[in-house]
Amino acid sequence: MKYLCLVYVEEKLLNSMPQNERIACSNESMAYCDALQKQGQLIAASPLHPVDTATTVRVREGKTSTTDGPFAETKEQLGGFLMIDVPDLNDAIRIAANFPAARFGSIEVRPLKELGCA
To answer: What is this structure's pTM?
Structure first.
């Protein structure tokens, strides 16, 4: 079953970490993703640029509008994702719990709907 693990972090907290800690966390994250890929469980993963680079798009009554930044004001921001393929939710939770950002942020685990199209 495929799951999307959405990694939420508080950018202020991340930016306040000493550079060596941020680099160590990034290296640990990449090593974890490499291990998951070698086990055939990782489909895709990527960090995202800071939230201030986001653009929110809405279409209302046929008109498109854009807003700088994310739609919701929250303490934590979406910082990246992992898309995994594992047997069940328990495995997805185990993988999310071992991802380094789970120690200071949160990871939302959601199953993907399988669509009948290619």
So the answer is: 0.85
